[in-house]
Structures are given as structure tokens and as C-alpha cells.
Amino acid sequence: MAALRYAGLDDTDSEDELPPGWEQRTTKDGWVYYANHTEEKTQWEHPKTGKRKRIAGDLPYGWEQETDENGQVFFVDHINKRSTYLDPRLAFTVDDNPTKPTTRQRYDSSTTAMEILQGRDFSGKVVVVTGANSGIGFETAKTLALHGAHVILACRNMTRANEAVSRILGEWSFL
After folding, report:
1. d(CA 97, CA 120)
2. Which residues does UniProt call coiled coil (predicted)?
3. Deepest of 68, 138, 162, 166, by most Cβ within 10 A of its Cβ?
């Protein structure tokens, strides 16, 4: 191993490659865990990436999962008449904890209130929006109303508030 390190061959660009002494294994129900043979311990997270993984999908055609007399899971390839303790689906694992994008990643300065509330139902909800006669307040009030909320417009000028209500109600005729 020292010779490989000296030659620069132990370096890899694959983040999923396991360090020396580590092995990737699976449980009966499809979870991936990692065995560290050097320290004789196991863990659920990948030693380099920290991600948890699971097996996606069924075994390939002709394969069967069995348990030996010691309770260890092994896999039988009936077509090629071979068996192995290595799950053939390990090449197709998926992250168990995909990172959810933060609000800043999903939305930017050009995102509208309609895009943010898409697919949400505010029926039966009462919402108070300040400054609802213009700008961001108006767009927020309009979008919440179009999504079923009972919106109370809190404005300083009653005339402009009534105009905003008329404009919001005018949107209903186009739906």
C-alpha cells in the first residue's frame, strides 16, 4: 500500500470509494452499512461522505437472497450457479438522506408568491396581511386569497384597501 501511495495511485476522484480496510455490506431489509476491519466496528454512514444509503429495487433476474447457518445473508446466482456474500445491487444504491434544498436555493428574487404557494390549500385559514394595498403585501394577499385563505387586509388608507380588494376579487373571474 505504501508503494501505491508513493506512486500517487491510492488517490481517487470517486467520493464513494471506501478507504482501505472498509467493506460495504447490506442488511436483509436493504440498508447499507460499512464494516471497518481495522478497528472491528460497523457504522451506517459512509466513512468519507457521511451519507446513509439503501438498496433500490429488486435483485437481478436469476438471483435469490438466502441466509446461511450462521445467520449471514448471502446471494445465489442461479443462472451462473455461483453464490456470494456481496449484494449485487450495491452498485445501484441511493442516498437515504437526500439533502433538501434550502429556501434560498429553491427561490430567488424573481420568484412569485404563486410559485411559492403552488399546490397548497389554505381553506379555512384566516390570514392578516399588513400593507396589502400595494407591492409585496398586495401580491401576498392576492395569492393567499386565491389559495383559499380568508384574508384580512390591514391598510392605512381605506380607499386604497377597497381598490385592492376589488382587484383581488377581479382575479377570481379569470379562474
Report:
1. 24
2. none
3. 138
